[in-house]
């Protein structure tokens, strides 16, 4: 089965999505998500100028060899742009292989390990009362796990909370917007927030929180310790990930479970954290961590150390990624949870989807392949618009982690 065409489709139905479509001489085709938020065109060029021409004439059935060709065969390895491009190829090829086998992708991976996939959604508010309302709404929608983020008194803008009170979409301006940050105000406020949430909604609901890389290890240790009475499902991205020794210091100070990895793109990024048991959940996802092929390796390695999966699932990961991720989640033995930040109706209108939400859980559906397709005609009506993620500054103007 030879690859005859590999084309990149860019669209912006409310936000940018990059989709790779691989076509074969047997008439079967597959698609993969190639979206890298705020750097979309870099991946488009990586694919169009380099990887797509290399794919023409290759046997679409040889997923492993193509993965090795694009990764091991390259002198310049890893990095988010290149790995997102490889992930798109890999996802499209798994879609094709499952279609050729006349199976939903999860069957090809080994069959399902569970009946349904628990997801967490986001509850965001400008202050504690509006955040409590958002948590209540998520509970009404059936969610069993909720990530809670709130505006902080005295801090103008913060991660996870929309400016105008509408839906939160972090890449929201043509050039980076400037946000502000105060570690002191955040640390004093956040335990109060969780105290209120537990008081109002009890202990049964799973609560999660994303620090978004902003603390030093000892500050993160303090936060984890102070959040222990509210027994979070996880505390995410507590410190920047470049220096992984930081997690050792954090781990020494708290039993709050630790999640990390949404910006990792290689199994090598995960190795030390997993083998030293410094984390509890690995957040790598299909589109940014080398597709299904590398995600399986990461998950199997993690399973040796009691680390479970918790894939990133923000809106900048397209429905194509979500579809593939749900097949992976259905199969993976050491599944933890899947993030679900719902796409808008407009975003979803461009992609047909076999996956379904019901009462806090997803199922990937029984369509062959990964079950997601793109309506190319409709996609063409929404051309690319440049959107950047914000930058962050401390109150004195010092540039900080966003
Ligand atoms: C986030 C994302 O979902 C999450 O946990 O950290 O919203 C992240 O900020 C975006 O995916 C950035 O593109
Ligand atoms: Mg995050």
TrEMBL record:
InterPro entries: D-mannonate_dehydratase-like, DgoD-like, Enolase-like_C_sf, Enolase-like_N, Enolase_C-like, Mandel_Rmase/mucon_lact_enz_CS, Mandelate_racemase_C, Mandelate_racemase_N_dom
NCBIfam families per record: ManoateDhtManD, PRK15072.1
GO process terms (BP): amino acid catabolic process; carbohydrate catabolic process
Domain Mandelate racemase/muconate lactonizing enzyme C-terminal: 128-257
Domain of life: Bacteria
Protein name, as recorded: D-galactonate dehydratase family protein
Molecular function per GO: magnesium ion binding; mannonate dehydratase activity
PROSITE patterns xrefs: MR_MLE_1
């Amino acid at each position: 089965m030879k690859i005859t065409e590999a084309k990149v489709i860019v669209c912006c139905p409310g936000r940018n999505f990059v989709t790779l479509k691989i076509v074969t001489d047997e008439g079967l085709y597959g698609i993969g998500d190639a979206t890298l938020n705020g750097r979309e065109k870099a991946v488009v060029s990586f694919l169009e100028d380099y990887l797509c021409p290399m794919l023409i004439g290759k046997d679409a059935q040889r997923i492993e060899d193509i993965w090795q060709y694009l990764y091991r065969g390259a002198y310049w390895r890893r990095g988010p742009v290149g790995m997102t491009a490889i992930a798109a190829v890999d996802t499209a090829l798994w879609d094709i292989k499952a279609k050729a086998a006349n199976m939903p992708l999860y069957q090809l991976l080994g069959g399902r390990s569970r009946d349904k996939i628990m997801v967490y959604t986001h509850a965001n508010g400008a202050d504690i009362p509006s955040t409590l309302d958002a948590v209540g709404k998520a509970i009404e929608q059936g969610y069993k796990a909720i990530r809670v983020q709130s505006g902080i008194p005295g801090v103008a803008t913060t991660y996870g909370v929309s400016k105008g009170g509408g839906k939160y979409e972090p890449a929201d301006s043509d050039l980076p917007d400037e946000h502000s940050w105060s570690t002191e105000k955040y640390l004093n406020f956040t335990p109060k927030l969780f105290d209120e949430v537990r008081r109002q909604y009890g202990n049964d609901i799973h609560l999660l929180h994303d620090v978004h890389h902003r603390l030093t290890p000892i500050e993160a240790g303090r936060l984890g310790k102070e959040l222990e009475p509210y027994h979070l499902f996880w505390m995410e991205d507590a410190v920047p990930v470049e220096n992984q020794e930081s997690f050792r210091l954090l781990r020494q100070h708290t039993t709050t479970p630790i999640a990390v990895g949404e910006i990792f793109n290689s199994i090598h990024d995960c190795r030390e954290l997993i083998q030293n048991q410094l984390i509890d959940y690995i957040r790598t996802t299909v589109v940014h961590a080398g597709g299904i092929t590398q995600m399986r390796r990461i998950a199997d390695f993690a399973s040796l150390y009691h680390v479970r999966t918790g894939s990133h699932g923000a809106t900048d990961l397209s429905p194509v990624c979500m579809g593939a991720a749900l097949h992976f989640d259905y199969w993976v033995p050491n599944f933890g949870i899947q993030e679900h930040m719902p796409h808008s109706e407009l975003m979803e209108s461009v992609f047909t989807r076999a996956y379904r939400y019901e009462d806090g859980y997803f199922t990937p559906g029984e369509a062959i392949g990964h079950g997601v397709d793109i309506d190319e005609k409709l996609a063409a009506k929404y051309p690319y618009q440049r959107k950047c993620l914000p930058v962050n500054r401390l109150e004195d103007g010092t540039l900080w982690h966003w």
